[in-house]
From TrEMBL:
This is Transcriptional regulator, TetR family. Residues 11-71 form the HTH tetR-type domain. Transmembrane segments: none annotated. Residues 34-53 bind DNA. One of its GO terms (molecular function) is DNA-binding transcription factor activity. Keywords: DNA-binding. It comes from Bosea lathyri.
Amino acid sequence: MARKPRADMIAETRARLISAARHAFGTVGYAEASMDELTHAAGLTRGALYHHFGDKKGLLVAVIDQVDAEMTVRLRAVSHGAADAWTGFRDECAAYIEMALEPEIQRIVLRDGPAVLGDPWNWPIQNACIRSMTDDIGRLAKAGIIVPVDPEAAARLVMGATQHAAQWIAHASDPQAVSRKAIAAFNVMLDGLLLQPTQAH
């Protein structure tokens, strides 16, 4: 039987560790997840974890990156399925806030992530999110859909609002009720960017 290429073996090992960690972090939480149990579930050793991720914290970063990438795909599908650019932008923002209701995202990304890795604004994945939203807002402004505004400044403010709303939901005693209130208020705020017909003259 032909031996697998080294790159494939590395990718498979990383995938098994991330899968096991994601399950553990999403069910019992980062603090309670045992590295011995985690590596056993993956059929690997602690040495493999240390080699590929450095430590448990490095593994959490990899898990968050994977979850975030999946969230991005889902959010883009929301915006692409909308009737127009503005509705797509608004629905994508609301969908992000609603994702805070999902147990895995709530626990890994919104609770354990900041507790272990610090302020999300300092995470590398935030830079990509800022650039993407800046581009979206820039296109909306150029198309005359929203008022003239500095795209990056608006992107950072909108992202700050969505992230704070998500954290509020994740730590609320009644997440469903908070989600409804947060999205309703957020949409009112976001609509303030729209270029009103009277402003176009």
